[in-house]
């Protein structure tokens, strides 16, 4: 344990207090048994999540995190295939046989450049270069917990069917699932379930932004910046010229577009004309075709920057993901089970942690949220056009197999994703409790699908109608191999 606050929260939150508020009066005996089984192992799964939190391995470098989850599933009798789709840290774990085949997604990559101890005050960890600011240390173990719970139910009930856990690396910009989709690994799956850490509990049929990411590289001619600048051609000028044109372009593209960039390489010394520079771009839009059109204009801007600065430009598409395709009937099923499970109940210690953390949000943002909101489940939004401003490679999965997800309150209400506050919450019992809410909701939903084939038939009919009869999947990142070194 890194500090006394973390240790104290884990002891208070795991074992002496219930992890969630259950609606026991409406649960069947069978459902109660499943949830009790998960409760009995919550401390164990919490330890797995904290180990992955401490490792904080970034995309395609999650060797230890992936191996930890594989080992857990192997010990539980799953057949595990490793290194699939050309990705060393990707795996598929399978138990059972025959139809239906229900898949569960698991993620475990961290974000570079943000570190934080499990404290409610800002406290970076200087020995680290990454942190779980999106909570994927919880995502992986929570999904594994669910897959094992469903496996136990299959054995006890004698039901036929297959439960499959997909270990999916590099969600953060690496598009790991896209390569798995492209490899056909979901072709025989009937329904896929997933979840994501958040500051609330909900299962709305929301969509997301499609996304293309790329690194633009400019190569120039080095020279002494003072003695012979006329002999140089600055690669950094190429990057800055591209950025200037892209920023002017923002006025002339749909206002709901999102474009962000970082200069990853700008030169070594001011007195040397940089002969190499690189900028890393993300562009997002809810409409995939509009996204592609904007992307083409960005490439033209890069080409123009190269011409204008007499530098050579080349680019590499790093990732590309579809928008989520919601299936409302599946979302209703997930919402029903999430409501049965209930939200996260804080201990007095956790409440103090949450209140202290909330002081860092600012009055215009999360400070207006109350810690007690973690105990509630958001009302179901009966619309299929709800939009998340984030992007995820789950989107590609959702276009090749009916897919449904939920968010669970692993973070203090008001916490923003990709923040130090998210890292802090993800490393405490608050995060583990939210993780177990997700594991239970996924498990009950999977069991419903195994028990009632009509639910799957309805979901697949709705899904087919939503994606259209003429749909043909083509990955936005083309035929490139996995960008295994994109975080190096």
UniProtKB/TrEMBL annotation:
Where is the Peptidase M20 dimerisation domain positioned along the sequence? 212-304
Q: Single GO cellular component annotation? A: cytoplasm
Entry superkingdom = Bacteria
Q: Does the keyword Cell membrane apply?
A: no
Gene3D superfamilies reported in the protein's UniProt record: 3.30.70.360, Zn peptidases
Signal peptide range in chain numbering = 1-23
A Gene Ontology molecular-function term?
dipeptidase activity
A GO BP entry is: folic acid catabolic process
- Alphabetical keyword list: Hydrolase, Signal
Q: Which PANTHER family match?
A: PEPTIDASE M20, XAA-ARG DIPEPTIDASE
Can you say what this protein is called? Amidohydrolase
Please give the organism: Larkinella knui
């Amino acid at each position: 344990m890194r500090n006394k606050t973390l240790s104290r929260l884990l002891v208070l939150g795991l074992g002496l207090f219930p992890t969630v508020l259950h609606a026991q009066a409406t649960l069947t005996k069978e459902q109660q048994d499943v949830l009790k089984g998960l409760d009995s192992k919550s401390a164990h799964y919490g330890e797995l999540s904290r180990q992955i939190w401490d490792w904080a391995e970034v995309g395609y470098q999650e060797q230890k995190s992936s191996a930890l989850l594989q080992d857990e599933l192997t010990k539980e009798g799953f057949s595990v295939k490793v290194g699939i789709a050309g990705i060393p840290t990707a795996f598929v774990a399978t138990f059972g046989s025959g139809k239906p085949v229900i898949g569960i997604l698991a993620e475990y990559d961290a974000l570079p450049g943000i570190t934080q101890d499990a404290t409610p005050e800002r406290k970076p960890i200087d020995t680290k270069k990454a942190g779980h600011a999106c909570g994927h240390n919880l995502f992986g173990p929570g999904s594994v917990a669910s897959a094992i719970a469903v496996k136990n139910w299959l054995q006890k009930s004698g039901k036929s069917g297959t439960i499959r856990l997909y270990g999916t690396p590099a969600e953060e910009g690496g598009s790991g699932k896209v390569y798995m989709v492209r490899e056909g690994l979901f072709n025989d799956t009937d329904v896929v379930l997933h979840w994501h850490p958040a500051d609330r509990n909900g299962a709305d049929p929301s969509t997301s932004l499609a996304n293309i990411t790329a690194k633009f590289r400019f190569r120039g001619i080095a020279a002494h910046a003072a003695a012979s600048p006329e002999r140089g051609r600055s690669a950094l000028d190429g990057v800055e010229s591209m950025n200037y044109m892209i920023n002017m372009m923002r006025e002339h593209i749909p206002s709901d577009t999102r474009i962000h960039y970082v200069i990853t390489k700008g030169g070594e010394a001011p007195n040397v004309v940089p002969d190499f520079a690189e900028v890393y771009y993300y562009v997002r839009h809810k409409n995939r075709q509009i996204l592609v059109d904007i992307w083409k204009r960005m490439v033209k801007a890069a080409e123009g920057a190269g011409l204008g600065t007499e530098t050579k430009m080349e680019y590499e598409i790093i990732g590309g993901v579809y928008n989520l395709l919601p299936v409302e009937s599946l979302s209703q099923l997930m919402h029903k089970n999430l409501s049965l499970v209930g939200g996260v109940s804080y201990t007095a210690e956790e409440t103090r942690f949450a209140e202290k953390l909330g002081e860092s949000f600012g009055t215009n943002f999360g400070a207006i949220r109350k810690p007690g909101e973690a105990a509630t489940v958001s009302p179901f939004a009966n619309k299929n056009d709800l939009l998340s401003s984030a992007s995820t490679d789950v989107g590609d999965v959702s276009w090749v197999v009916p897919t449904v997800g939920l968010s669970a309150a692993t973070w203090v209400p008001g916490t923003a994703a990709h923040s130090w506050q998210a890292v802090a919450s993800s490393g405490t019992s608050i995060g583990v409790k939210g993780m177990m809410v997700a594991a239970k909701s996924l498990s009950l939903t999977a069991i419903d699908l195994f028990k009632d084939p009509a639910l799957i038939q309805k979901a697949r009919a709705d899904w087919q109608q939503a994606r259209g009869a003429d749909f043909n999947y083509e990955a936005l990142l083309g035929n490139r191999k996995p960008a295994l070194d994109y975080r190096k």
